[in-house]
Amino acid sequence: MRLYAHTPVAFVAIVSGAMFALLTTASRVSADPASNAAMLTSELLLPVCGPAECEDNHACRHCAQPATAGAKPTATDALAVLRSAVGQKTCQACVCDVDGSGSVVASDALITLKIAVGQPIGLACPIAS
Q1: What sign results for the dihedral spanned by CA atoms 63, 66, 68, 72?
Q2: Which residues pair with 61 in a beta bridge?
Q3: Do residues 110 and 60 share a domain?
Q4: Is residue 96 part of a domain?
Q5: What are the tens digits of pLDDT across the range 3-19?
Q6: d(Cα 59, Cα 125) in Å, to the nearest integer?
């Protein structure tokens, strides 16, 4: 098979148990594995997220967990959702729109905090597109 200069080439790397992908072009791929490794470490690797996750700020995140990755949201996550609601930080709807209303608002932070303290509330984040 012949690769032309603009043929898309994908690399997949597993770093600390997480899968990352890099899409580049054949013109940047070298016959030298060390050169390819250097390119992989110098380029922005995008995370490959699972079905219950979405990419947010170059990391795979679960609904209502923009700041942590534990078993459930924490008060730190609620604060991050609130900061997103007031425009201090960005957060994808698939992570911070916990009630599925179509926008991230202060009530999303309140729901996240209620879950963090153990109240049995369901999450309704939209599915990542």
Answers
A1: negative
A2: 54
A3: yes
A4: yes
A5: 444 445 555 555 555 55
A6: 17
How many angstroms separate the CA atoms of 85 and 89, rounded? 8
Tens of pLDDT, residue by residue over 31-87, are: 666 665 555 555 555 556 666 677 766 677 889 999 998 889 999 999 999 999 999
Q: How many C-beta atoms surround the C-beta of residue 66 within 10 A?
A: 27
**Are the CB atoms for 109 and 79 separated by under 8 Å?**
yes
Please answer whether residues 96 and 104 qualify as being in contact, where contact means their C-beta atoms are separated by less than 8 angstroms: yes
Asked, for residue 123, whether it belongs to a domain, the answer is: no
For residue 103, pLDDT beyond 90: yes
3-state SS of 76-93?
HHHHHHHHHHCCCCCCCH
Name the token pair of 93.
């709807």
Looking at residue 69, what is its pLDDT?
Answer: 86
Asked if residue 93 and residue 73 are part of one domain, the reply reads yes
